[in-house]
Amino acid sequence: MEINLLDDSQLALLRQLTADASSVVVTVHKSPDGDAIGSMLAWAQYLQALGKEVTCVIPDAAPDFLMWLPGSQTLLRYDKHPDRAKEAFDKADLVCCLDFNDLSRTGDMADVIAQSKAPRLLIDHHVGPTVEAALSVSHPAMSSTSELVFRLLWQLGAYDEMTLQMAQCIYCGMMTDTGAFTYNSNAPAVYLIISHLLEKGVDKDRVYNRVYHNYSPQAIKFRSYVIFKKLRVLPASHAAYYTVTRDEMRRFQFVRGDLEGVVNIPQKIKTQTLHLAARGHREGPGHTRQPPFGQWVSLPQDGGGVLQRRRPRRRGRRTPGVLHRGSRAGGPPSHHGLQGAAAMTPRGPGSWSVGQSLMSKVAKNGRRLMVEQTICYNFAVRYY
User: Fold this and answer.
1) What's this model's pTM, rounded to 2 decimal places?
2) Which of 144, 245, 252, 294 is deepest in the core (most CB within 10 A)?
3) Is there a contact between 219 and 244 (Cβ–Cβ < 8 Å)?
């Protein structure tokens, strides 16, 4: 079974990029998930084994349930230490961009990355990459960026030297980006890779427990509250939505990761095809972004969509998206609110996240859902 990804010229370029660099920055997207953190730490440990000085920079906080991963204590948060992060980018001979397809997904850090003079290496599994890179390893068909990292290490001949710590990070990334291998994980190669990781000593049950059985009592109560009190089901539209306000987050002492996976729970409802989730979030010290209300999310009859330009088909279906951005009265497209198509990126089959625009109430209107009050920040759309 073929695991290698690169042709001979690409492999030579990858070897050259890593050989020529002495100081490397590895970075990922805003609100990093298990795949982002897992792939980052595994790739960083490989580079460190080559004798490189490596700095792992994340735009903001990672979920608490990932902070047991080997190397997680070395992560440098841009939102907490922007000067140190900028210094690392200025010093870098190579910037490795993992698990994002557009610089906008790194939030306020995007300009710092763009201004770095170092060549970039892109390793990502999202559709439509726009990051300019000396080498782009982009494979949307893959389960995760962590899978890509394993394949690269395999092709580089680094498997024999792979440590248990690296294998744990890769396995965690693959597991979390596939819902513990319940979606986007039908390729036989996924399980061949898992078998190689197990050979390194990964205890898959322990990894699962540390990720999914790691909630505080308050988090369990919050998750139950969201499903019991906040979930709204629209049977005629085969849709459901929930919203969470900042006051509710404070009430349940919310920390990053407490609602991880809740967005997937409504898909257990029979005939369910769409789920929307909105969560209040501070955009900066002391304030929350509040774009104008009246934004529309349109649901095309065929499951397709247009995000400024038509996205490529994925496994025989057009990916979901925003068909119209504008005022409630049908005015010109807004440059606030939904922020633009570039902010939409896939997070698994049929799953999209829309940055910098949220809702606290959704109203049914034919096959359109309207954002009536935008007081939140993170907006997840899942269309099955």
Assistant:
1) 0.74
2) 144
3) no
Task: Decide if 173 contacts 136 (C-beta within 8 A).
Answer: no
* Calpha distance 267→22 (Å, rounded): 47
According to DSSP, residue 176 is labeled H
CA distance 245 to 252: 11
Alpha helical stretches, state H, the chain: 8-20, 34-49, 82-91, 110-115, 145-155, 164-176, 188-199, 204-212, 217-225, 246-251
Q: Which long-range contacts (CB under 8 A, 24 or more apart) does 321-324 make?
A: 321/352, 322/296, 322/297, 322/298, 322/354, 323/298, 324/296, 324/298
Q: How far is it, in rounded angstroms, from Cα 304 to Cα 310? A: 9
Q: What is the pLDDT of residues 121-170, one digit of tens each?
A: 999 999 999 999 999 999 999 999 999 999 999 999 999 999 999 999 99
The pair of three-digit structure tokens given for residue 18, joined into one six-digit string? 């890593």
- Over residues 232-241, the pLDDT tens digits come to 888 887 788 8
The answer to whether the beta carbons of residues 21 and 93 sit under 8 Å apart is yes
Q: What is the length of the chain? A: 384
**91-95, 340-344, 349-353 — which one is most confidently predicted on average?**
91-95
CB within 8 Å of 76: residues ≥ 6 apart = 55, 56, 57, 58, 84, 85, 88
CA distance 37 to 28: 8
Structure tokens at 297: 């999310």
Q: Which residues contact 157 (CB under 8 A, 6 or more apart)?
A: none
Tell me the two tokens of residue 180: 């513990």
Cα–Cα separations (whole angstroms), residue 129 to 59, 67, 241: 19, 28, 29
Tell me if residue 213 falls in helix, strand or coil: coil
> Measured between alpha carbons, how far is 226 from 330 in angstroms, rounded to an integer?
33
Backbone φ and ψ of 333, nearest 5°: -55, 140
Tokens of 211: 């990720």
